[in-house]
Amino acid sequence: MLLWGRFLTGIAGGITAGSIPVYVSEISHPSVRGALGSCPQITAVFGSLALYALGLVLPWRWLAVVGEIPVVIMMTFLCFMPTSPRYHIMKGNRARAVKSLEWLRGPNSDYMTEFNKIERSIKSQGTQWSDLKTPLYYKPILISVFMRFLQQMTGITPILVYLEPIFHMTAISLEPKYDAALVGAVRLLSVAIAASLMDKAGRKALLFTSGFLMYLAMLSMTMYTHKTPCSHGNLTVTEGLKTTYVGSTGPAFDPVTLIPLISTMVIIFGYAMGWGPITWLLMSEILPLGARGVASGLCVGVSWITAFVLTQLFMHVVEAYGLFAPFLFFCVISVVNIIFTAKCVPETKNRTLEEIENYFRTGRTFTILDP
């Protein structure tokens, strides 16, 4: 039953991971799209933190029951949510598209001007396999896929999955039940900061900051785990990555162990501030409308396949080469992310989706040219 439940939630998570960012980007005004685009990540992190906190006082069966409450609320609210105006236009439902946009922007706004731009942009597109050869399609798709690939190559998933063994190997004396709560609090704080700065500082500035913080923290972890023995003679890694301490008393507190603790928190903070939420947001912003559904699914698939492979390989690499080896690799990836951001990622702050598409079409400008 647990495996079946996990299978169903995995399918649901995959569907929502690909559709929510696209929907939010299509209904949002450019001036607030960055903040709203961060909301799925914020709510996901907040939900995780809430479950971590409840897990301290509730048995897991009741925790599963509590998890049904947000699902019921979400299904209820879905009944009142409008369909994306862009989707209505693509299906030829012009009247419904106008009504939807009017509801989203308000009857006193200049929603018809925005509607005309959206309609003109969609009518100028035709989606065929041959279109993948044009920069309008292959450039944003490649950027989105590589961003999702590099996002997972930072190692955030195996670090979160194996956080308890990592803390034990680096002699961080922290009770396991507090690991998840601490991580959840740090993630929530960093994503909230990113959301507040998204439409002010811009996407690229936060990606640079995120990559630089992860680079420094990964470098610190690499140096610490390379110079300091990680086993301390009291750790046994058993089947299922369970850890058992020999002896009834743990080692005395060593201030040096604050280095891996702070570094791990900085890694999580840096990731959740930029490369976590912004890759989802940029994917929904730059993908061409005609291929957005399939391309977003491709991006999500690449992301989770990469995360799965890294998670499977992580402990094997640690056992073969030591804990410093994967952190050295993640450190190099952080540098690659910074270079990739500088060379390939466009700044989409305060740009409409039509302006972003025109940028990839012309390669020069974000403006919309009237016929």
Q: Your description of this structure?
A:
- GO terms for molecular function: transmembrane transporter activity.
- Keywords: Cell membrane, Membrane, Sugar transport, Transmembrane, Transmembrane helix, Transport.
- It is a multi-pass membrane protein.
- The chain crosses the membrane at residues 6-24, 36-54, 60-81, 141-160, 205-224, 258-282, 294-315, 321-342.
- This is Solute carrier family facilitated glucose transporter member 6-like protein.
- By secondary structure, the protein is mainly alpha-helical.
- The protein has 2 domains: 13-128, Growth Hormone, Chain: A (Up-down Bundle), CATH 1.20.1250; 133-230 and 255-362, Up-down Bundle (Growth Hormone, Chain: A), CATH 1.20.1250.
- 73% of the residues lie in helices and 2% in strands.
- The protein contains 17 helices and 2 strands.
- It has helices at residues 2-27, 33-55, 60-66, 68-78, 85-90, 94-105, 111-123, 135-153, 156-161, 163-169, 176-201, 203-227, 258-275, 277-286, 292-321, 324-344, 353-362; strands at residues 235-237, 243-245.
- It has a two-stranded antiparallel sheet.
- Strand 1 (235-237) and strand 2 form a beta hairpin.
